[in-house]
């Protein structure tokens, strides 16, 4: 996935005579009045609108400023702070670019470019914040007694606009809407450890995993004797455990109960992620590369919020009701794998 292309994410707004200082018309330059929201709002009001508190915004700003195109407010240029706040506001509302442009005080064309560049800059922090952790098994074991769990894996759909008339149908998922199918792995504290955001909505969960670097790492034994835990969309292997569809013994029922409770962490993680950043539940109306950058960037921001204990924020917009993203392929995860059977016999038998 190329998150760092220089292509514009909204070419129709690049045709006119626009720059980062505001809208230029045929007679006069239009300048905007930009409010310093950092000093204008209290910390709680600031967090409600931008999803991060002031301290986290300051720390994030230091890390992404070198990657931004405009870093000076000279000649009414858009400051790095305003660029970051505009992008965070866009994530928090998931609305039209014009709304966040007016909120910050820039043109729509500038807002489009800012979301593109800032999303790429935040996504560039992925290796620093989204990584496999070494001490996950104890916290998972406390949930339902399931031993040696590396992380919970699943996929979720992020609605998008149809990307292209030629390939659009590839992005239509089983519910008939255009989306990207995003793979995520989290720990028991709802921290993302892996996010893959490059597959169309029609892709099956198992296909995404089978073509991921994560699977290669599992097969190479980089995570020791720890397991991933996933639903029946995945095949049961020596490193990925799935539930039994037809348990026949008490031990197998205990295994399934513990499996469901432990696997539920990834469903909760997706829920917290999408609730904090409603753009992930509403239709993202930007180009594909920017969409991918937004998904990765919000996963980075999610981990920042969790690491800094930033409280969950009630969405300002109505969130669509989801019936769940679990896709079941009959029989795919039901092989009586020896590792799973040994686990049932050793840990869940009465």
From TrEMBL:
This is DDE Tnp4 domain-containing protein. InterPro entries: HARBI1-like (IPR045249), HARBI1_dom (IPR027806). Keywords: Hydrolase, Metal-binding, Nuclease, Nucleus. Residues 153-303 form the DDE Tnp4 domain. The keyword Ribosomal protein does not apply. It is found in: Nucleus. It holds the Pfam family DDE_Tnp_4. Coiled coil: none annotated. One of its GO terms (cellular component) is nucleus. The keyword Nuclease applies. Its main location: nucleus. One of its GO terms (molecular function) is metal ion binding. Its cofactor is a divalent metal cation. Belongs to the HARBI1 family.
């Amino acid at each position: 996935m190329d998150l760092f292309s220089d292509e514009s994410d909204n070419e129709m707004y690049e045709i006119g005579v626009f720059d980062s200082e505001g809208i230029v018309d045929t007679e006069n330059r239009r300048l905007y009045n930009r409010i310093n929201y950092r000093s204008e709002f209290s910390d709680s009001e600031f967090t409600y609108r931008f999803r991060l508190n002031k301290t986290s915004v300051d720390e994030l700003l230091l890390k992404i400023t070198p990657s931004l195109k405009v870093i000076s407010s000279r000649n009414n240029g858009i400051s790095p702070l305003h660029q970051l706040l505009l992008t965070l506001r866009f994530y928090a509302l998931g609305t039209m670019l014009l709304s966040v442009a007016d909120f910050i005080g820039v043109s729509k064309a500038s807002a489009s470019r800012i979301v593109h560049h800032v999303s790429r800059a935040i996504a560039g922090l992925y290796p620093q914040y989204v990584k496999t952790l070494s001490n996950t098994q104890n916290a998972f074991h406390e949930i339902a007694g399931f031993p040696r769990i590396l992380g919970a894996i699943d996929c979720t759909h992020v609605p998008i606009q149809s990307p292209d008339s030629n390939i659009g149908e590839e992005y239509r998922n089983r519910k008939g809407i255009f989306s990207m199918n995003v793979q995520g792995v989290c720990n028991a504290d709802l921290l993302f450890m892996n996010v893959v955001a490059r597959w169309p909505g029609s892709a099956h969960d198992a296909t995404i995993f089978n073509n991921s670097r994560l699977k290669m790492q599992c097969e190479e034994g980089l995570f020791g004797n720890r397991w991933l835990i996933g639903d029946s969309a995945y095949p049961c292997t020596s490193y990925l455990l799935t539930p039994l569809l037809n348990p026949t013994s008490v031990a197998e029922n205990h295994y399934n109960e513990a499996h469901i409770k432990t696997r539920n962490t990834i469903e909760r993680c997706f829920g917290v992620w999408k609730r904090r950043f409603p753009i992930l539940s509403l239709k993202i109306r930007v180009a594909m590369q920017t969409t991918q950058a937004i998904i990765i960037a919000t996963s980075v921001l999610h981990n920042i919020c969790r690491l800094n204990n930033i409280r969950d924020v009630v969405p300002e917009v109505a969130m669509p009701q989801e019936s769940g993203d679990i896709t079941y392929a009959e029989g795919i995860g039901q092989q009586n794998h020896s590792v799973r059977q040994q686990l049932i016999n050793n840990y869940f038998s009465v």
